[in-house]
Structure formats: C-alpha cells, structure tokens
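Sharing a chain and its predicted structure for anyone who wants a worked example. Both blocks are below, sequence first, tokens second.
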Amino acid sequence: MTIYNLGSINIDHAYHVPNLPRPGETVAAAELITGLGGKGANQSIAIARAGGQVAHIGAVGQDGAWTVEALRAAGVDTGAVRVTDVPTGHAMITVDAAAENTIVLFPGANTQIEEPQIAVALRKAVPGNWLLLQNETNAGVAAARMARDKGLRVAYCAAPFDAAAVAEILPFADLLSVNEGEAAQVRAKLPGAALAGCDLLVTYGARGAAFISSDRSVNAAAFKVDPVDTTGAGDTFLGYALAGFDAGLTIETALRRASAAAALQVTRPGAAEAIPTAREVTDFLVRQG
C-alpha cells in the first residue's frame, strides 16, 4: 500500500551548545550541522527506510532543490512536491550537552500548498491507503476531507500542538499521534467525544510508547541508549510505526521496531540523516535479544 504524507520540508540548522540559552543570554555554539528536517520530511524518510512506500506532498522554495533530492535519494516519491517563490521552511535548533533541544521554526513554503496539488497527488490513491498529516503545513483539513472521501485511513500527528487545528482535523482521523504533553492538551482542551473512534499513539520519551484503542492498549518499552541528539526521534518512531501498520505487522511488532528505530536515531547527530535503515533496526533488535 501507499502512505501519502502532506508534510513539511525544512532546512535544519542545528547548533550544539553547552546549555540551552536563557532569556537575554548569548551562548557560543561548538558545532553547526545543516541538513534536511521538518516533521513531514523526517516522517517520510522514516517510512521509506522502514520499507514503506511513501509519496510526499509538500512545497519548497528556489533554495530547496537539494532537500527534494535528499528525499528522493531516501526512496521517497517526490512527484507532488512543488517549487514556490517563498523560501523553504527552516528551523533553528539548539542542542545541549544532555541532548535536549529548543527549536525556532520558520514555516516558509510549507504554507504554500494548494488544494489542486493535493487532489492530483491523491488521484491514484485507493481505499486502505494512508494519508499522514502534521501541523506544519496548510491545507490539512482539505486533505483530510479528500482522503476520507476516497476511503483512505488518516493518521494525524498533532504537532506542533494547536487546539484549533486539532479540533478541525480530528473528526477525520483514524489515528492520532501525540507525545505525553500533547496528549494532556488534547484531553484538557477537547471534549472526550472528540476522540471517539480514533486510535491513539502516544510517545513518552525514555519511558516508551503506547497504542490505545477502544478495546486494547499495547505498551512498548524504550531501549536504553546514550543519546546525542533527540531532534526527530518522535518523527522516526511515528514513521516506522505507521510503515509497520501499513505492512500488516502486529501492533506489538510495529511498536518494537519503531522504538528500536528511535533509539538508534537519537545516538546520531541530526534529524533526517540520522534515521536508521530497516536492516540497521533488525540488527539492533537481534543484539538486544
């Protein structure tokens, strides 16, 4: 099957600092890493490296040709990525000695996606395919509605959290992916009925993750590793998990592989470039026993 991902494409500038700067503080960076990022791009690459078939729907500026080529080189179908006159989105990331990070995001071309572009991208979609969404692009509601009309399953990553966007997209979602903090905000700001019929995929960082549906709950433990950079870990987990669901793996197996992929990813600097291949994940699980 195919996973269609209406997702952001960013140029990441990651600065490694001794501590995250406080208000008014200037901190000298020991290292700068520039690479491909954006929740959407990260998730598409994770899906592809997990062995899934993924088509990315997005937009970049004239400065973003290399980001599209990087997606394509990772096995992502980029036929639905358009080039605009607005600069490619970018993120300024600071990463401290404990691998924690802060991010300043410029949306850029990610807000220039057009509904006809989405319609063309979904033209060959068939019932049972997935549409994946996040909150880093425009046109999410329109895309979710088109997907539902065509019988697609909709996975929604409610990040960065925006209560209004969640309220609009959630009625179309089959799977809601959130971290622990986002899950608390969903429950606090939306009526309980809003989650009716929607499965939950919740990540808890070093405490693992859980898949929660109306009739079952499956927990997945996190693997103990020494993290270098946690940027993109959640995207790696979701991409691997969704690829596993799409491939027909059991929930338990899909989550275990996703946990292993995220564990490997945080031991490497960067976001998209740090995402492991399916073979690396398999080898890691063998070593873990």
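Comments welcome. The first helix runs from residue 39 to 49.
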